[in-house]
């Protein structure tokens, strides 16, 4: 794969890491008299194709064969080869200059337990600089995690600067400095792509309504005034047009409506009148109308969506390709049955208070594509806190990866 950008960039990163590894002066294994200086690495990808963008269905398996001075990584895809490179680096040590050495012949066969191994960052509420986000991406790569679920607009703050509607960030960012422009976003997307990481941006669609009703003309006040006004949905379509352009090569966009103020629906006279005209008898029916409009906009924009569990709560029927996220500390059996009955794939969110990986039956295993760890409460721009948070998370996150079966010569060590 001499001309595969993903692989070539990874090899260069690991060459740089070898220099750093050597400078840390790790002690060589006890049986260093058996050390072989590594001279050649062959990377074989069975598809003969260099993938450039992640999906949620990628094969991440690989096989490493190390025979004294020669190593071979075999994989079905670019992403499997990328995982193999990370492991290959882990089982070698650096001694003289930038030479890589090993002290054993070994075979490693490895594959992820789940195709979705994610991290959740809410930078709308807890802003992180682009540099700090890249540090997270590096740590994700080292731990073989492949999805960054990135919340850019929650119920309170909006952190993505849109060229067409700059007022969203001018008036609703947590600070004038806590905003990402399109160039910064594209740079982060590229940084993630080269590390085999898919970005799923999240936008709280109900917060669009909340924000727009506060910063735009009176005729744009929906849900607070009249959710039947078509201008608002046209306005939202324009927003999604720009979001889709920014994240054009990402597979999914997460659409959240967390913390909807449902009592407001029944108390607002305009909405009650609309409900009577449209024969919407309760809040659930109104939400279905709203969800349907949002779903139509997504389809028109060609957007594959990940949805929060509130869509299941509302009884909304999503397309089979939709992915459902079940939030931490939720009633798992309830949402599992709903997701499975509608043939949806789903992701479970986890954190310190809910670190469990399900013991899933065969049916659940087919629908459960993975987990994600929430860094939203304990993450900031300080490097010490970053490393402390990851040191806690890495232990649990390893549950999402099947441990490799390693065959090695007697007395060998992995450092």
From TrEMBL:
<dbReference type="InterPro" id="IPR029019">
    <property type="entry name" value="HEX_eukaryotic_N"/>
</dbReference>
<comment type="similarity">
    <text>Belongs to the glycosyl hydrolase 20 family.</text>
</comment>
<keyword id="KW-0325">Glycoprotein</keyword>
<dbReference type="Pfam" id="PF00728">
    <property type="entry name" value="Glyco_hydro_20"/>
</dbReference>
<dbReference type="GO" id="GO:0016020">
    <property type="term" value="C:membrane"/>
</dbReference>
<feature type="active site" description="Proton donor">
    <location>
        <position position="259"/>
    </location>
</feature>
<dbReference type="InterPro" id="IPR025705">
    <property type="entry name" value="Beta_hexosaminidase_sua/sub"/>
</dbReference>
<feature type="domain" description="Glycoside hydrolase family 20 catalytic">
    <location>
        <begin position="114"/>
        <end position="348"/>
    </location>
</feature>
<protein>
    <recommendedName>
        <fullName>beta-N-acetylhexosaminidase</fullName>
        <ecNumber>3.2.1.52</ecNumber>
    </recommendedName>
</protein>
<dbReference type="InterPro" id="IPR029018">
    <property type="entry name" value="Hex-like_dom2"/>
</dbReference>
<dbReference type="Pfam" id="PF14845">
    <property type="entry name" value="Glycohydro_20b2"/>
</dbReference>
<dbReference type="GO" id="GO:0004563">
    <property type="term" value="F:beta-N-acetylhexosaminidase activity"/>
</dbReference>
<keyword id="KW-0326">Glycosidase</keyword>
<dbReference type="GO" id="GO:0005764">
    <property type="term" value="C:lysosome"/>
</dbReference>
<dbReference type="InterPro" id="IPR017853">
    <property type="entry name" value="GH"/>
</dbReference>
<dbReference type="InterPro" id="IPR015883">
    <property type="entry name" value="Glyco_hydro_20_cat"/>
</dbReference>
<feature type="domain" description="Beta-hexosaminidase eukaryotic type N-terminal">
    <location>
        <begin position="4"/>
        <end position="88"/>
    </location>
</feature>
<dbReference type="GO" id="GO:0006689">
    <property type="term" value="P:ganglioside catabolic process"/>
</dbReference>
<keyword id="KW-0378">Hydrolase</keyword>
<dbReference type="GO" id="GO:0005975">
    <property type="term" value="P:carbohydrate metabolic process"/>
</dbReference>
<dbReference type="GO" id="GO:0030203">
    <property type="term" value="P:glycosaminoglycan metabolic process"/>
</dbReference>
